[in-house]
Automatic annotation (TrEMBL):
E.C. number: 2.1.1.33
Enzyme's top EC category: transferase
Protein name in the entry: tRNA (guanine-N(7)-)-methyltransferase
Pathway annotation from the record: tRNA modification; N(7)-methylguanine-tRNA biosynthesis
Native source organism of the sequence: Amycolatopsis bullii
Amino acid sequence: MVSYVKRGGRMTVGQQRAWDDHWPRLGRTVSELPEGPLDFTAWFGREAPVMLEIGSGMGETTSQLAAAAPELNYVAAEVYDPGLGQLMLRAEKLGVENLRLLHGDAVVLLTEHVEPDTLHGVRLFFPDPWPKKKHHKRRIVSPSFAALVASRLAPGGTFHMATDWENYAEQMLEVCSAEPALRNRYDGWAPRPEWRPVTKFEQRADVEGRVSHDLIFEKR
């Protein structure tokens, strides 16, 4: 079962050009990866802590976060082709060198291609909220997902989530608090980090009166 709904959409000329120019070096497709763990050290050409961001969207936040942390090997997983094209465009403008992209299901990536106890951190910012109650089961944050993320984090590694949907935030808090391998760094919500850029989604949520919540758990 895939943990996302495939998003269609045509690329702009710029996104397609970025894809043609950069994808062969920067990108891989999850379903086409060889069996076994992905060798991030070889792919980046250096050994560095690996940060995985799940659902990079149009790359607005991801490109800035990767640029701000050159000491990390920053990996973005996304299912939306134009989003990956836009991320490569943004990264090119910012001169980002420490970013690699994966197209496909992050659950398959984590399960089949990431070794246990290896990731410096996992970020999940504003995932699809599936606001209708009957669709809540489609939300990516579930007990099995929290356990999977926890198993792939190195000890002390962080799982950082953010959402502007109150009941999804509460679900994230409940699910991750119940995962024995994770510990909440804060008593409930984390303070909003100054380093996390405000996205257009977050701005819209603010206008619509929804409060964004951050949660930061770490591997015990």
